[in-house]
Amino acid sequence: MAVYTEVSDDALDAFVGQYDIGGVVSCKGIAEGVENSNYLLQTERGAYILTLYEKRVDPGDLPFFLGLMDHLAARGLACPTPIVGQDGKTLRSLCDRPAAIVSFLSGVWHSRPRPDHCAALGEAMAEMHLKGADFPLRRPNSLSVAGWRPLFGAIRDRADEIAPGFAPLVEAELDYLDANWPADLPVGLIHADLFPDNVFFLGQRGEAGAERVSGLIDFYFACTDLLAYDIAICLNAWCFEPDGSFNATKARYLLSGYRRLRPLSESEMMALPLLARGAAMRFLLTRSYDWINTPAGALVKRKDPMEYLHKLRFHQNIAGPGGYGIE
Ligand SMILES: Nc1ncnc2c1ncn2[C@@H]1O[C@H](COP(=O)(O)OP(=O)(O)OP(=O)(O)O)[C@@H](O)[C@H]1O
Ligand SMILES: N[C@@H](CCO)C(=O)O
User: Fold this and answer.
1) Taking the model in full, what pTM does it have?
2) Which of 19, 189, 249, 257 is deepest in the core (most CB within 10 A)?
3) Which domains does the chain carry?
């Protein structure tokens, strides 16, 4: 459970008193997520999400994240809207952490998404890319190719705790990614963490095509980067089965859904295997870092780095976009 910071009743009442959302009815820690402390806040006016920003979020980036959600929500994308306080601000401080309240979105996420969910995800991601195109702020992706080597440097000494032979394997892959990472693909606003738990669906469950995306959440890795890299992250996060096998049908649906709204160039298609290797490396490294560094006693379930080592190996053997079910 991702609650790193406990909030006392008095501190919460004083905090919520700075908004026009009524008094606190209840506030419960949310048993999902690994990055920040999240609470489901029920007030006299309705349901909200209270987030206290923790370790990996740079406070200097918060105006970007909150401004982005505001921008996308104003253009009709289903995403949380930051709530403005009586002082006109969305960002303030609680228990010595930066904190904000955002709107609550209904829906459920699917731990085993079907192909039709992947198609809907593809469309929603393309809609986000299009609606983010005129967002005026920029934020470089600190977890892209230039950030991976320093991240690995921070865990290299304990790399054998992840897997025997982990260090040389990662170093060889980093050399390859550094040498081949594309520089000339379309760039824009990307989510960069669009995993199934960050995409909510509503509608008739169980019936293919009957559910619609009701919300994208967790914009706290959003940045300015290659648009196709966002797709590569999703190929990793949505298209592998629990037994580790790759589901090319899901990949085809995901890419077709995306291309219905935003066509992909030939160069973007050809770059997908490389971008997917990079995306696998990103989550392999952050999960490895967390595996080694999560504080004892934190109410959080660590995510398995080995899942991403397996995915990396899969993409290393893909020659072109045909490997993802498309030509
Ligand atoms: N706006 C929202 N509406 C409804 N539920 C939300 C909202 N924001 C967050 N949640 C709930 O809180 C959980 C954790 O949120 P979030 O994914 O932002 O946390 P996180 O710590 O950044 O996690 P991670 O980066 O691991 O996905 C979500 O799975 C969801 O259940
Ligand atoms: N979605 C990430 C956690 C947040 O970065 C993962 O599954 O590793």
Assistant:
1) 0.94
2) 189
3) 9-103 (3.30.200.20), 115-324 (3.90.1200.10)
